[in-house]
Design brief:
single chain; mainly alpha; Rna Polymerase Sigma Factor, Chain: A; Butyryl-CoA Dehydrogenase, subunit A, domain 3; elongated
């Protein structure tokens, strides 16, 4: 089955459903073929028939979305109502997409197997976007408070590091562009892997390196002016 770059079936793929009693691709049983036809007819209909099919499919999509969102969310420190809300959004988005593409279903697999691809893709997009937005939000989160602890040492070292971290925070807020702040927070505070950041920003490694280089140069100048670094020290 031809697919788009997002892994979903091509919208221009013609609809094909084997006749009941025949053998579909992959040796689908007559029961599965009938069920596929019921899904297509129901979602292609209008009024109450369409509503019933949509509610039934939404329930299946939501169950898959919740399981997938919790699985992905556990790796990104997302849990509870936050993840459940993303799953509901993903299920709703997937239902809308499936309804719009139902006529492209070729009947080469179970309809629900085809449909689950849409909701899994929607969950990944929702969770990743939400995680990124949350990380790039404000510079007043707990990550700044935790930054001095990375220095180690005794109380005096920690106090000095905290003072420097506060100076860096002010410099980030006052000296960097929005793009530079986003990259700096992601790489330095949240320790986001470079490859992940490149994908999230739809950028390239070289572009991110250049943005970070410019950000560090600005921060170093601000810290030198503030007396936190000498002209010979590196940020």
């Amino acid at each position: 089955m031809p697919i788009d770059e997002d892994g979903t079936p091509r919208a221009d793929t013609p609809c094909f459903l084997p006749a009941v009693g025949g053998s579909g691709a992959g040796g689908l049983t007559a029961e599965v073929i009938r069920e596929n036809q019921d899904w297509v007819r129901g979602l292609s209909a209008t009024g109450d028939v369409h509503e019933r099919a949509s509610r039934r499919l939404y329930a299946l999509l939501l169950r898959t979305a919740l399981a997938e969102a919790r699985r992905i969310g556990s790796r990104l420190r997302l849990a509870g109502p936050e993840v459940d809300d993303l799953a509901h959004q993903a299920a709703a988005d997937a239902l809308l997409t499936i309804t719009g593409k139902v006529e492209t279903f070729r009947g080469e697999s179970k309809f629900t197997t085809w449909a689950y691809k849409f909701v899994i893709f929607a969950v990944a997009a929702k969770v990743n976007r939400h995680s990124w937005q949350r990380a790039a939000i404000a510079l007043d989160g707990g990550d700044w408070n935790a930054l001095p602890a990375r220095v180690g040492g005794g109380p005096e070292d920690w106090a000095e590091a905290r003072d420097l971290a506060n100076a860096v925070r002010r410099a980030v807020d006052e000296s960097l562009t929005a793009r530079q702040r986003t990259v700096f927070v992601a790489l330095v505070l949240d320790e986001t892997p470079m490859t992940v950041l490149v994908n999230r920003l739809d950028s390239t490694h070289n572009a991110i390196y250049k943005t970070m280089f410019d950000a560090r140069k600005k921060l170093r100048s601000a810290l030198v002016r503030g007396g936190y670094l000498s002209g010979q020290q590196r940020a």
